[in-house]
Specification:
alpha/beta; Rossmann fold; 2 domains; four-stranded parallel sheet; 6 helices; 7 strands; 36% helix; binds zinc ion
Length: 152
């Protein structure tokens, strides 16, 4: 399952990436037919808070009801019957949707704060934008939200 999400649901998009889904933003400079074409070509489900867009028929689009992003995440998980698979978590960059790979900590010594380098063992690098992640950066926040999701 892949998604195309509008900017009004930016935090939702980051969360979908975090739980391992290929999620791109809708390019607001494009026309609706162009956006639809992209969603069909790449088989992406459009998630939007734009009512007009959500009423266009003939393609896969879902109008996100909630304005609160934790609720939005819950809503999408329920709607598409998404199973949270922990092994898929943190496989994508939340900033750019690139895929992450584990990286030898010795290669990034000068790229992360020294206390982080000294105290963490596992580091990941985005193949697309080179952003570096480590256990305890967005991963802890993720754990918090995931526990909120599990408490339904
Ligand atoms: Zn990235």
């Amino acid at each position: 399952m892949k998604f195309l999400v509008d900017r009004m649901c930016g935090r939702l998009a980051r969360w979908l990436r975090l739980i391992g889904f290929d999620t791109e933003y809708i390019d607001e400079s494009k026309t609706v037919p162009e956006i639809v074409y992209k969603s069909l070509r790449e088989q992406r489900i459009i998630l939007t808070r734009n009512r007009k867009m959500s009423l266009t028929k003939g393609y896969s689009v879902y109008f996100v009801q909630s304005e609160n992003f934790v609720e939005q995440v819950k809503e999408v998980i329920k709607k598409f019957d998404i199973k949270l698979e922990k092994e898929r978590f943190f496989s994508r960059c939340i900033e750019c949707n690139g895929t992450l790979e584990e990286i030898d900590k010795n290669l990034i010594r000068d790229k992360v704060p020294s206390f982080v380098w000294q105290t963490k063992e596992k580091f990941y690098k985005c193949k697309k934008c080179n952003k570096i992640y480590w256990q305890g950066s967005h991963l802890e926040l993720a754990g918090e939200i995931l526990s909120q999701l599990e408490e339904k």
